[in-house]
Amino acid sequence: MSDQTDAAGPRPSVPYWHLYVDGDGTSHQSQCALTDYQLKAVGPADPQWNDKMERSEATVVFTVQPVGWVGDWHENPAPQWIIVLSGRWWIESMDGTRIEQGPGDFSFGEDQGCTEVNGKKGHRSGTIGDQPCCLMTVQLHVKPRRGSCHLT
Prior knowledge:
There is one protein chain. The chain has one helix and twelve strands; from the N terminus they run αββββββββββββ. It has 152 residues and is mainly beta. The protein has a single domain, classed as Jelly Rolls, CATH 2.60.120. Strand 1 and strand 2 form a beta hairpin. The longest helix is centred in the first third of the chain and has 6 residues. The mean pLDDT is 94. InterPro entries: RmlC-like_jellyroll (IPR014710), RmlC_Cupin_sf (IPR011051). Keywords: Plasmid.
């Protein structure tokens, strides 16, 4: 291992939540991690750890959800990275798993193609607390894939 790699520390593992659909069309959430980091310099800067995703077209959308906002059962409009910038929110999948996220937390929403069961399809989400939740989404123009943690 080179001195640069030693100085940069061990290869990172950065956690995120993945909202996905199983083979039966039910949404689930699982904790995954970005782990495919490579140590590389950008221009004359010191090397940094980069986990580069597959290239695709994308649309960036900033969202502000008001205090008390609830998005009843729905699917994400596209496979998308969702980053919490401020405030807090929750996400509940069809299997009953509910997670809460705050500033700096992020997830990958890929619940397109769910099968409706007892009025549930996709996920529900909503704000927590007495302030709006500001999100940045990066909607990928790719076909959704089934199964969890396939980005790693």
